[in-house]
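Open question from group meeting: does this chain pack into something compact, or does most of it stay loose? Before anyone orders reagents, we agreed to write out a predicted structure and look at it together. Recording both the input and the output here so the notebook holds the full record.
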Amino acid sequence: MPPSPVSLPQSPTAATNFVALLGFPNALTPDTYGAVGTNMLITMLNTGVKFQTRGGASVYSNSLISFWTSTNIGSFFGVFDPRVAYDPFNDRWIAVAGVDADRYRCFSNE
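Structure tokens returned:
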């Protein structure tokens, strides 16, 4: 028997808009990703991460490397190509990014 449907909050009207996360003008590629959950949205760029309510109020904002460093996963030099998705079936966020632990390899031509 399928589970009963979950009541979700209403989405903002089409006229509601707000700025999510601005990248740096000189960033080579912003690699923009975002996902909307039941109560908030998360935006990830190569330069940063921002959590906002569905109405646009900022809840958390940090650089991409500081966001991952705060998870206590170890040390690395470069963080890039972030992705984020919302899993509505388990009410959770899934975020990933590439890393380069070797600062010298990050800029090599190999």
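Observations to bring back to the group:
Confidence is low (pLDDT under 50) at residues 104-110.
The chain has one helix and six strands.
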